[in-house]
Amino acid sequence: MASLAIENALKTLSPGMVAMNINGFAYTNPIFEKVINRTYMSVIKNNPEVWEYLYDNPKVLKSVQGMRNSIHRSNSKKLKVLIQDEFKPDAVVCTQAFPCGMVADYKKYLGLDLPLFGVLTDHAPHSYWIFNNVDYYIVPSELSRDHFMRNGVDGAKIRVFGIPINPRFSNSHEKEDICRKLGLDSRKRTILIMGGGQGLGPVERMVDALERTDLDFQVIAVCGINKRLQKRLTKKEKRYKKKMLVFGLVENVDELMEASDILVTKPGGLTTSEALTKSLPMIIIHPIPGQETKNTDFLLQQGVALRAEDEDDVTVLVQELFSNSVKLNEMRKKTDSIKKPNSAMDTAQLVLQAIR
User: Fold this and answer.
1) How many CB atoms lie within 10 A of CB 222?
2) Distance between CA atoms of 157 and 187, rounded to whole angstroms?
3) Sequence-separated (6 or more) residues with CB below 8 Å from residue 189
4) What is the DSSP letter of 81?
5) Which residue from 17, 174, 208, 355 puts its CA 20 to 30 A from 112's CA?
6) Distance, CA of 244 to CA of 142 (rounded, Å)
7) Model pTM score
8) pLDDT tens-place values along the chain, 356 residues long
9) Beta strands of 226-344 (E only): which ranges?
């Protein structure tokens, strides 16, 4: 989604531009990519402590360095076809560390003068991003910039533009109009629950726990591609006393956020950046160890989110915020200092400057 946001911004600024937006790992190692994805999903669901150990661990990074270099060299033939024979790009923008490192090493091997941009999509950087042949890093915050500089990255290469999101999140709408469109009561408080694209986390248990509270509010539950979850919640919808809307994978997250007063979510980089742009306070639950834990730490430090350990914790925090409008408004105001709604456009401008 971040790469699509940058692509759309590039085409807005330079309508004649041609872009190829690909999954770098799937392009070079299609079978291995499927194995890695399945393994990753299995680990974070069943043994999250394993991923926590592996994530940004200097010992692990050092031990896999040789294997990583070998994979990069083996991918050189496919990269040559893409970069030098067929598409011949004027610049490469990577929103994930693996392809960024792959292209950086390819540049190094062949001495290519090809502008390469590494775009972080989480609030905290990790060491797998760091390569000498990356021309610019786009990072979410000054904290990310400082981290990179402490690890040897030249500050002149770093731009604090934020995490690129779709420009439509910058557009404001009248809450009454959106609520009318969705069939919600604009006079009532609204809680938005999201489990990411996979529909992970205790979404159903949270909905059940919130239903049992005495406070009067509405609930929007977004289940992503988790059709089983969507089906179960839809069946329960009619029995609930509170107004509830259940969605699967949606295109109008910006509108759902605009209609909401609190977001309960896993702390993915893009979702939380979208929420910040909409000045939407967050309750974080069940972050994936590693990148999402670091995202959580950042959001808590900035005062724009609270963390819940389980669904009962969520109800307590919801009651606390809805009974304390001062605290809720303070959280909204604190988003102003860290939101960066123009990241995609700023990144696109930098890319175009580099190739002109």
Assistant:
1) 25
2) 48
3) 215, 216, 217, 218, 261, 262, 322
4) I
5) 17
6) 39
7) 0.89
8) 999 999 999 999 999 999 999 988 888 888 877 887 888 778 777 777 777 677 777 777 677 777 777 777 777 888 998 999 999 999 999 999 989 999 999 999 889 999 999 999 999 888 889 999 999 999 999 999 999 999 999 999 999 999 999 989 998 888 999 999 999 999 999 999 998 777 677 899 999 999 999 999 999 999 989 999 999 999 988 889 999 999 999 999 999 999 999 999 999 999 999 999 999 999 999 898 888 999 999 999 999 999 999 999 999 999 999 999 999 999 999 999 999 999 999 999 999 999 98
9) 244-247, 262-265, 282-285, 305-308
- Sequence-ordered list of residues with C-beta below 8 angstroms from that of 43, at least 6 positions apart, any chain: 50, 51
CATH label, 168-337, candidates 3.20.20.140, 3.30.230.20, 3.40.50.2000, 3.40.50.620:
3.40.50.2000
Which amino acid is residue 318, in one-letter code?
V
Q: Dihedral (C-alpha) 112, 113, 119, 120: value to the nearest 10 degrees?
A: 60
Q: Quote the tokens at residue 49.
A: 């402590």
| Single-letter amino acid, residue 131 | F
- How far is Cα 30 from Cα 315, in angstroms, rounded to an integer? 43
Choose the CATH number for 2-165+341-355 among 1.10.10, 3.40.50, 3.30.40, 1.10.3470: 3.40.50
